[in-house]
Amino acid sequence: MILMMMMIVMMMMMMMMMMMMMMMMMMMMMMMMMVVVMMMMMMMMMMMMMMMMMMMMMMMMMMMMMMMMI
Q1: How far is CA 53 from its chain centroid?
Q2: What span, in angstroms and rounded, lies between the C-alpha atoms of 49 and 56?
Q3: How far apart are CA 39 and CA 33, in angstroms?
Q4: Which of 42, 50, 59, 70 falls between 20 and 30 A from 23, CA-CA?
């Protein structure tokens, strides 16, 4: 009887440990995914900013050319 109780308790502890490990792994995976998404968003923002700057520079150059023509 006592042995049975000990076995059951041990099984419960093992299950709890496994669940905790799984939860930790899931949390880590979620954090990694969040970081990756954030990096992608930052890269996209930087690309957009660069494109905008390039467009502005092109516009300025065109204006200067027009002025020179006139």
Answers
A1: 26
A2: 10
A3: 10
A4: 42
Q: Measured between alpha carbons, how far is 70 from 62 in angstroms, rounded to an integer?
A: 12
pTM: 0.44
Mean pLDDT computed over 16-27: 91
Question: What is the C-alpha end-to-end distance of the chain, expressed in Å?
Answer: 103
3-state class (DSSP) for residue 1: coil
Q: Which of the 8 DSSP states describes residue 70?
A: -
User: What are the tokens at 34?
Assistant: 């969040």
Note the pLDDT of residue 11: 92
Cα–Cα distance for residue pair 24/31, rounded to 1 Å = 11
